[in-house]
Amino acid sequence: MIRKLLLRLVDGFSRSSAPLVVARSRHGVSRHAISACARRVTAALQAEGFDAYVVGGAVRDILLGREPKDFDVATNATPERVRALFRRSRIIGRRFRLVHVLCGREVVEVSTFRGKHAGGDGERGATDEHGRILRDNVFGTREEDAVRRDFTVNALFYDPSTEEIIDHCGGLADLKARKLRMIGDPQARYREDPVRMLRAVRLAAKLDLEIEPRTRAPVPALANLLESVPPSRLFEEMLKLLLSGGSFQSVQQLRALGLHHGLLPMLDVILEQPLGQRFVMLALQRTDERVRDDKPSSPGFLFAALLWHEVLSAWRTGEAAGKSTMLAMFEAIDQVIEEQSENLAIPRRFSSDMREIWILQARLLNRSGRRPFALLGNPRFRAAYDFLLLRCESGELDMEIGQWWQRFQHAGEEERKSMLLPGTGRRRRRRKKPTSGLRHDSASGET
Asked: Which is catalytic among the residues 51, 61, 70, 159?
């Protein structure tokens, strides 16, 4: 049905400098497909004499039969005029100033039409030695704004007041052909913002589009430009990619294009190991299934899975050197987290989850005494158990271990006791003799 709709939209039209304006009678998108907040923002701006359109991914997703997660608005009003018009709003951004307008819990991002980048190091624009844009407060017309966007399918404008779609770059034709096409010269556009290479992979996988050859060709040679991107921005884009519902295809594309180097160190080595590849791909498939089923997905769990075989390798090395199981695990975790901090800015809230999931992998192997009972009450038990199942399904561990924990969780008290494996017994701690002249206060912890 969507294909027939897009065929109707582009039949009789060809790419030209004049925009393609399509009425609702041809595209079928009602203004009620747009959120109430976005409609209110465009209406208020238009009432003040400004142009205002819903733009980008929201228009694209509606045409593809998907439900947009958020709505962006583009206008010829400056950020200051937009801010003055809406009481609950704030100006954000340095590279390009935007306005966030709040309606209850919904946030609509309003941007001023962007013009041609001036270059140089003046107030209106600045680039680095690679051509990457550092500051970009250059305003322009709707046509210039369309051309400045990344991909043609993201350059569609929708006017809620007239219910028309305006297409300056041939985005409707590319949606019909299921193509992801860069606007302008791909090499120059990637140099302006190297993150566009990652976005191309993410959008192609998420929307089931093919990256057209000219857009794809420069990527391998320019992959090293990602080294100049701030780690926090790389992490944000990687998180979007891995939680897009198309992470399995995305990682395969990253590897094929050479874009994984420097993002997740040793990921290519991991994927070349039979057990590592099965484990990582299984974790990505499970995550994609949860996203597509609108179930919550934990970034900490996913990054723990992607880096697990680095931890596992260091853990085994530590144990082989004679260190205790838990000491070897703690040192392995510290080593991997430290290595990652230089390449990928994983926030503490996620790295803490990763640490707990990894630590519990060692403790889940102990199925004797009171420890299994204590683990059931651990807040991270469910995540660690799911992680353990991935290890079993990938062939890293015997399936019997996962099945044991599955049964133990749902068994009664007596059955649980009967399931415990023989242990070495509790080792009694030797009490140290008090040092002469010193008294230890066990309540305060002071001497």
From this structure: 70
**Is residue 79 assigned to a domain?**
yes
Domain count, the chain: 1
**What sign for the dihedral angle of Cα 112, 118, 121, 127?**
positive
Please name the residues in contact with 211: beta carbons below 8 A apart, sequence gap of 6 or more. 179, 180, 200, 201, 204, 253
Quote the tokens at residue 67.
């439900």
Q: What is the pLDDT of residue 264?
A: 65
3-state helix, strand, coil in the chain (%, to 5): 50, 10, 35
Within a 10 A sphere around the Cβ of 182, how many other Cβ atoms? 22
Give the position of tokens 């420890």.
371
Is 386 a residue of the active site?
no
Two tokens, residue 109: 């991002």
Q: For residues 396 and 279, is the Cβ–Cβ distance under 8 A?
A: yes
Segments forming the whole domain that contains residue 89 = 1-176
The one catalytic residue among 145, 150, 167, 353? 150
Residues 76/142, Cβ–Cβ less than 8 Å? yes
- pLDDT given at position 117: 58
| 174 given a catalytic annotation | no
pLDDT score for 446: 43
Whether 255 and 271 have beta carbons less than 8 Å apart is answered as yes
Tell me the C-alpha distance between 383 and 361, whole Å: 10
pTM for the full predicted model: 0.77
Q: What is the CATH number of the domain that holds 59?
A: 3.30.460.10
- Whether 313 is covered by a domain: the verdict is no
Phi, psi of 171 (to 5 degrees): -65, -35
- Is residue 179 within 8 A of residue 210, CB to CB? The reply is yes
Pairing of strands 156-159, 133-135: unpaired
Q: Is residue 169 situated within a structural domain?
A: yes
The answer to whether the beta carbons of residues 142 and 53 sit under 8 Å apart is: yes
Within a domain: 105: yes
Q: What is the 3-class SS of 303-357, one letter each residue? A: HHHHHHHHHHHHHHHHHHCCCCHHHHHHHHHHHHHHHHHCCCCCCHHHHHHHHHH
Pairing status of strand 179-180 against strand 210-211: parallel
The residue among 71, 102, 107, 106 whose CA lies nearest residue 87 is 102
Token reading at 279: 């484990």
Alpha-carbon dihedral angle through residues 120, 122, 125, 126, given to the nearest 10 degrees:
50
Average pLDDT per block of 10 residues along the chain, 447 residues long: 49 58 91 96 98 96 93 97 96 88 95 74 49 64 94 97 96 94 96 94 94 96 89 86 91 86 67 82 93 90 92 96 96 90 78 95 94 94 96 95 96 95 60 49 41
Sign of the alpha-carbon dihedral angle for 49, 55, 58, 62: positive
